[in-house]
Design brief:
With 224 residues, this protein is mainly α. The protein has two domains: 7-71, Orthogonal Bundle (Arc Repressor Mutant, subunit A), CATH 1.10.10; 88-216, Orthogonal Bundle (Tetracycline Repressor, domain 2), CATH 1.10.357. The chain is 70% helix and 0% strand. It has eleven helices and no strands. It has helices at residues 7-15, 19-34, 41-48, 53-59, 62-71, 88-100, 107-121, 126-149, 157-175, 177-183, 191-218. Helix 4 (53-59) packs across helix 5 and helix 6 (88-100) packs parallel to helix 9. The chain is elongated and about 65 Å long.
Length: 224
Amino acid sequence: MDTLPDPAAAAADTAKPAPRQRLLDAALRLFAQQGYARTSTREIAEAAGVNVAAISYYFGDKAGLYRAAFFEPLCGREAPLAFDGLTLTQALGALFADLIAPLRAGEASRLCMRLRFREMFEPTGLWEEELRRDIAPLHAALVAVLQRHLAASAPDAEIHRLAIAIVGLGVHLHVGRDCVELLAPELHAGESALDGWAARLVDYALAMVDAEARRRAAAPGGGA
């Protein structure tokens, strides 16, 4: 007698992430917890519930899997942010929406930050690549917006300082996440709280830009 399929089991199997995604999830967790050198491909495959050969099929090798876990959209960008044609307020809104977006993924975003800490202390070259590929272009784009807004003839040291300080507002929500969740856990509790961060950070950044504009206006010659 044929056994009838179990609808619940079939639905659960359908809802299960695809093997590639399971490998990425397992790799992110294990690489973040143990580092690249101390994590084996067999351990990742077992955690993902797939054959170890799936790593070669989807990623080529362990290094390819590590690269994917480090750079794919949750932890990195598909392309650098661009602010062409945006006002200062619009550019800041896009910047902070981008910086806050990973926090909406919950624990995975914490693992992404932990993975970067590990990469800094146990380098494979990916952090340096991210600096050149993502962070430097983002900084240059923000500097260009600030230079235009402040009517500066060139991106002087104070504009670079301002751009770094503005980005730091959003970066601290990741680096200082444990502090935020200890001191005021409601600030990370749900989508509306994160929306609140996005809106307030734009306000804070605009105040910083206004302070720099007033400082420049008061400086001898009205410059930096």
